[in-house]
Amino acid sequence: MPLIALEDVRKRFGDNEVLKGITLRIEPGEVIALIGKSGSGKSTLLRCINGLEQLDGGAIMVADAQVADDEMRLRLLRLKVGMIFQQFNLFPHLTAGRNVMLSPTVVKGTSKADAEKLAREMLERVGLGHKFDAWPDQLSGGQQQRVAIARALAMEPIALLCDEITSALDPELVNEVLAVVRSLAAAGMTLIMVTHEMRFAREVCDRVVFMHQGLVHEIGPPEEIFANPKTPELQQFLGTTA
Ligand code: ADP
Ligand code: MG
């Protein structure tokens, strides 16, 4: 049984058909790299999986529940699937610990004591156990992104969607964030990540999905996708990013 199943998913913005029929099954614990040119629909696909966009066709199942337009179900879905963005968007007026505590207390009704315990555990998991009381502007970009990951983990998601989470970071801060992702992957977290870090994708991902013009153009294990790209589009894409 796949954890996440997309069946002929379609999405348009006005006349712009952005997703043209995406079918994809993701197994529990799988780590997927989503690659492709800017504008190929990668972010839109993640937003659809997380229920942030209404579909124009097809269906998405997440752990048995269909992603529906029903507000209530969408809200439940967003509780189950975590998403991390390029911009970490921590609340500047809250400490790192309070940022991580916020959703469990506000959304799930977790008690303050339990949320604090959870937040300390999650900050520990991203290597920031000592930063509970730090303010976001006292943290480096890499540390802020790790707090954002801890914040997503505090909701105990069944999968994490990562949209270019290292793209806004200075090069020397990329590896500390990728190391956290690597540890989550090793611990069995299901991950779908849009990334330009091809070496990381090659090392950590189980499968690579190459999107082109709103469709899955090639899909396969990293050793095939990177060493033996079949379509000219993927060959060209890899040639320009290598
Ligand atoms: P990628 O993440 O691969 O760069 P996106 O999913 O962000 O691609 O965008 C795919 C296409 O959808 C682009 O043409 C973009 O302009 C368009 N698009 C994305 N979001 C919106 C939106 N909210 N409204 C209108 N057009 C959008
Ligand atoms: Mg994008």
Automatic annotation (TrEMBL):
Domain of life according to the entry: Bacteria
UniProt subcellular location: Cell membrane
Topology relative to the membrane: Peripheral membrane protein
CC terms in the record's Gene Ontology section: plasma membrane
CDD domains according to UniProt: ABC_HisP_GlnQ
Residue stretches spanning the membrane: none
A GO term, aspect molecular function: ATP binding
Keywords for the protein's UniProt record, in alphabetical order: Amino-acid transport, ATP-binding, Cell membrane, Membrane, Nucleotide-binding, Transport
Keyword Nucleotide-binding set for record: yes
Family matches, as InterPro entries: AAA+_ATPase, ABC_ATPase_HisP-typ, ABC_transporter-like_ATP-bd, ABC_transporter-like_CS, MetN_ABC_transporter-like, P-loop_NTPase
Gene3D superfamilies in UniProt: P-loop containing nucleotide triphosphate hydrolases (3.40.50.300)
Domain annotation ABC transporter: ranges: 4-238
Keyword Membrane among record annotations: yes
PANTHER family, per the entry: AMINO ACID IMPORT ATP-BINDING PROTEIN, GLUTAMATE_ASPARTATE IMPORT ATP-BINDING PROTEIN GLTL
Family per record: Belongs to the ABC transporter superfamily.
Protein name per Swiss-Prot or TrEMBL: Amino acid ABC transporter ATP-binding protein
Organism field: Pigmentiphaga aceris
Lineage, uppermost ranks: Bacteria, Pseudomonadati, Pseudomonadota, Betaproteobacteria, Burkholderiales
